[in-house]
């Protein structure tokens, strides 16, 4: 599998390219482009949320928690005004950081096995959908921006999974390593019930997800421009 530095550098490069492309085609402004690059980069680290004993991963998720809680606070501060906005924002940042670092990440690292279900395409799709729903219902962002953040998070995660599969090939010996197929997967025969529950949860989140029409029309427009 690829190491932490490789995941971070390739994920960041890919996310910046995607964010710059959206800005070039006038899908969004510069601020949104920067946020997309950050979210995509964080997504490229997300599949290793199930990695418990790696120091680089622990450091990476510390940075992940700091950046994500800061983004949540910035989005909150831009959306609402109040007499105690600074105090409210600081409290929100602290709560978000503690929940992410010592709640979400700590729980996942203890309850999951590396390259298990978390290291799969549907699980990463679930994270992207949850981000879209959280941005739309929680932070009151537009459906377009909410779906955009969820999509770039998912794309960043796909970069991670594809890198792991690429590194599972021994190029010189032209053979597959034992880790081949354990990263970029949709299902495991040994876990039919778990994956059935995962896909059921995925369908439920899709049902309550924000409208995707604006993002879909924008992507269709860009595709037509590239073809013509």
Automatic annotation (TrEMBL):
The record's InterPro entries line, in alphabetical order, gives: YdjM-like
Work out whether the entry's keyword set contains Transmembrane helix.
yes
Q: Any stretches that span the bilayer, and where are they?
A: 31-49, 61-78, 90-108, 120-139, 145-172, 193-210
**Superkingdom field:** Bacteria
* Keyword terms of this UniProt record: Membrane, Transmembrane, Transmembrane helix
UniProt protein name: Hydrolase
**Native source organism of the sequence:** Moraxella porci DSM 25326
